[in-house]
Specification:
This protein is an alpha/beta fold. The chain is 43% helix and 14% strand. It has a domain at 112-336: Rossmann fold. Helix 2 crosses helix 8 (232-242) and helix 4 (122-135) crosses helix 5 (150-161). It starts with a helix and ends with a helix.
């Protein structure tokens, strides 16, 4: 009888222990759960997290597969306040034989944060992406560079400055002053009228200081509103991971009112002569879909303009399958010689 009681107690303790750990993490350290979930998603998708750097910068990135001699690598750049994890749902939907890298831009994710007096310009961001490609031995290879929002503008500007390093460029809802205003663009314009040091977190809907800010942001970037139904502890974990980066994000937003004007990509669009692609969510409330009509005629060699229905600014959340399909179709244009 004692043996059975001992066995029951042992089984009960083995079951109870992980439940207790989960409960402690969920209620007291939800950011650890959020981070573990993101790492699990990367691992499940075959993405290995790595670091590389020099005396000035440390870059964190996710990599799937190794470069292949006769196959173009894809490099993904995320949006403002996001991270490399944004692209994991897309990477797992793309063919398994492609070499893919998703980069944490400076100050985002796990990459190092530039100093207070650092150059915050788009040009500097483009040069840092180039430095990263050199560090991962892709500096002498043409890549398919894919970016969304802020990353979309950087991708386009990279293609304009380094056309010899770009096979093709995909810009998903890139940061640009669209013909139709949005709440965010109105905030940028209003902040432009202020002194830089007077621009605060309250001047940008993407700079989240509390739980309600996080929910409001998700409502604005997503077409689907189901995300806000998650438990508040999930949002708290997400918020906790973002808070230490807020001062840098604020400096980056302030730069949009000074050195980084949102018409920069439009002005440089005619310099983008490599094959290009525009992707936009039909219901984007952050950067209006009218931006696609603005940019297309200015691009030197625009092959595709893909407008995704029932989709907001966060295409990777709303319609990851459609986004992956459009990217791979454009990628295959190069493989099949359709660019010629």
């Amino acid at each position: 009888m004692d043996i059975w009681v001992g066995a029951v107690l042992l089984v009960a303790s083995l079951v109870a222990a992980p439940i207790a750990v989960f409960a402690i993490l969920f209620y007291f350290f939800p950011h650890i759960l959020v981070r573990l979930f993101m790492r699990y998603q990367a691992y499940k998708s075959g993405v290995e997290i790595k670091f590389v750097g020099n005396q000035d910068n440390v870059f964190c990135y996710g990599e799937k597969n190794a470069p292949r001699p006769n196959k173009t690598s894809i490099v993904f750049l995320h949006g403002f306040t996001s991270s490399k994890d944004q692209w994991v749902p897309i990477i797992k939907r793309l063919p398994a034989d492609i070499h893919m890298i998703t980069l944490d831009l400076p100050g985002h994710g796990d990459s190092s944060r530039p100093g207070e007096d650092s150059d915050m310009s788009f040009d500097r961001a483009v040069d840092l992406v180039n430095a990263f490609l050199e560090l991962v031995n892709l500096g002498d290879k043409k890549v398919h560079i894919v970016g969304s929002s802020l990353g979309g503008a950087i991708a386009g500007l990279f293609a304009a400055k380094y056309p010899d390093k770009v096979d093709r460029v995909t810009m998903a809802c890139p940061a640009v002053q669209t013909p139709v205003d949005t709440n965010l663009l109105r905030q940028v314009k209003k902040a432009t009228s202020k002194a830089t040091d007077q621009v605060t977190y309250e001047d940008c809907m993407l700079l989240t200081e509390n739980l309600q800010d996080v929910k409001d942001m998700l409502l604005s970037i997503c077409f689907s509103k189901d995300l806000v139904k998650f438990h508040d502890q999930i949002f708290q974990g997400f918020l906790t991971l973002r808070l230490p980066k807020l001062p840098y994000f604020l400096r980056l937003f302030q730069s949009l009112t000074t050195v980084n004007k949102l018409d920069h990509l439009e002005k440089m669009a005619d310099k983008i002569t490599v094959p290009s692609q525009l992707i936009w969510g039909q219901d984007d409330e952050i950067l209006h879909v009218s931006g696609a009509k603005l940019l297309r005629p200015k691009l030197g060699d625009c092959h595709h303009v893909n407008i995704i229905e029932r989709c907001g600014h966060a295409i990777h959340i709303d319609r990851p399958g459609a986004l992956a399909k459009h990217i791979i179709n454009f990628y295959r244009d190069g493989e099949s010689g359709k660019d010629d």
